[in-house]
Write a structure and sequence with these properties.
With 440 residues, the protein is α/β, with parallel strands linked by helices. 38% of the residues lie in helices and 16% in strands.
């Protein structure tokens, strides 16, 4: 049996020509460590499919295809084609699925989008995997071998990550990824209005053993020379003891790595020192909004910390760790002043890099449910859900004002003057850290 695991090509910049051109030109003009993180966070291979590959019996021939790097050969005779897609990849995933089904391949679709809209995905697939694959994929493969494939596969329990297999990273070897993804935890207790992660993976925090994580990293290092590891966890440091124990072990590995977390990471100076020692390069942090009236999380947890944002950034970056801040514009509290406010904040705080998105009503989120009730969703194909294209009616902006405002923020934040100020800022930080190490 031949199995193809496919990551569909995505719209990683924008469907708006002006924004798309801005992103592409900046990727070419700027060094990879300043602007490119936004693009890099959308690439690096699908961990879900690598787990599926690891769960697949060895007698099945497995091929991994990332359409962002390689054209799909639709004439290859695959017995089974499995696709994993986020919302902005869904349209392309369905096109690929339809073509392979027409040629007689059995098609399975999973991933975030199929999990929240399984009936839609089923229109293009023989089977849909809902949620995590650890419990369902072995059952699906067995049913397939017995000619008894079911339309939907969903586990009644969340996966025990301590039993999750080593992803088959060797399948990525043919691609020149800028970073390799590793996952240590699943689940997030923050429950943000615009995010479906806690709905899909639960609010309870689950994690692999530290030995598992170290084994994965060592396996990756055997495949690539000095890889940049990006931890794919939605919020890596929620469990403070586990995080401290893991980072302490990472500090002994001479490793370059990045992670996603929330602003509470700055509460503990000793932990920040440990991050610095471990050679953590970038922390991706969701600041989202500077407006206290903006609806961003269910319990107002982030809203209550807005005044501390500048000090949080200073604490982290003073350790030589760049903050890649994520901001959302287009919340109901936002008017045209949001462009000036967000731009000024990022520039004034010499933030290492920033990802600015328009509010995006993804399926499976409370945000989308609310906007649907209010009749504010603009009919649009899923490939328009890029986080840079407007898909709803803002409360205090026109769609055009929001779309143009996004481009304006990016132009200000990534102007030559702003980037030069960031470079000089970090040179000063690195010099101070060097002097401090010499003195010690």
């Amino acid at each position: 049996m031949k199995l193809a695991l496919i990551t569909p090509k995505g719209v990683y910049f924008s469907n708006d020509p002006a924004i798309a051109e801005f992103f592409k030109s900046n990727l070419e003009a700027n060094d990879h460590n300043s602007f490119a993180p936004r693009y890099a966070y959308w690439t690096g291979g699908s961990l879900g499919l690598l787990i599926v590959a690891a769960l697949t019996p060895q007698e099945i021939e497995v091929e991994f295809i990332d359409e962002n790097y390689e054209a799909i050969d639709f004439d290859k005779p695959y017995d089974v084609v499995a696709l994993s897609a986020m919302t902005q990849q869904a349209v392309r995933a369905y096109e690929i699925a339809d073509r392979f089904r027409a040629k007689g391949s059995t098609v399975v679709i999973g991933g975030m989008h199929a999990t929240v809209l399984p009936e839609e995905a089923k229109e293009h697939a023989d089977a849909v995997v809902i949620g995590e694959a650890e419990h369902t994929w072995p059952v699906l493969i067995n049913d397939l071998s017995e000619g008894a494939l079911k339309p939907f596969y969903k586990s009644d329990t969340l996966a025990d990550m301590t039993k999750s297999p080593l992803p088959r990273y060797e399948l990525l070897k043919k691609y020149n990824y800028s970073m390799i993804w590793v996952q240590t935890t699943r689940g997030c207790p923050r429950s943000c209005d615009f995010c479906a992660a806690s709905n899909i993976y639960g609010k309870a925090y689950r994690h692999k053993t530290i030995t598992q994580v170290l084994n994965e990293i060592n396996y990756i290092r055997g495949l690539w020379n000095e890889p940049l590891i990006n931890f794919a966890d939605d919020n890596m440091f929620v469990d403070k003891k586990y995080a401290a124990d893991l980072v302490a072990r990472l500090s002994r590995m001479d490793l370059r790595w990045t992670a996603q977390t929330d602003v509470s990471v700055a509460d503990d100076g000793s932990f920040l020192d440990l991050l610095q020692k471990s050679n953590c390069k970038i922390l991706f942090i969701g600041f989202e909004t500077l407006s206290k009236s903006g609806i961003i999380d269910a319990h107002g947890w982030k809203r209550n910390r807005i005044d501390a944002y500048p000090e949080i950034i200073r604490k982290i970056q003073s350790r030589g760790i760049g903050v890649l801040g994520a901001f959302i514009i287009g919340l109901d509290s936002d008017d045209t002043s949001v462009v000036d406010d967000v731009s000024r904040f990022i520039v004034d705080n010499r933030m290492y890099a920033a990802q600015i998105s328009v509010l995006t009503p993804l399926p499976g989120t409370r945000l989308r449910e609310r906007l649907e009730r209010e009749g504010r969703i603009i009919p649009s194909k899923w490939n328009n859900y890029t986080f840079t294209d407007v898909n709803y009616l803002p409360a205090r902006l026109t769609p055009a004002e929001l779309q143009n405002g996004l481009l304006d923020v990016y132009k200000r934040v990534y102007s030559k003057e702003a980037r030069r100020a960031v470079v000089l800022h970090f040179k000063d930080i690195y010099l101070k850290l060097h002097v401090q190490r010499v003195a010690e």
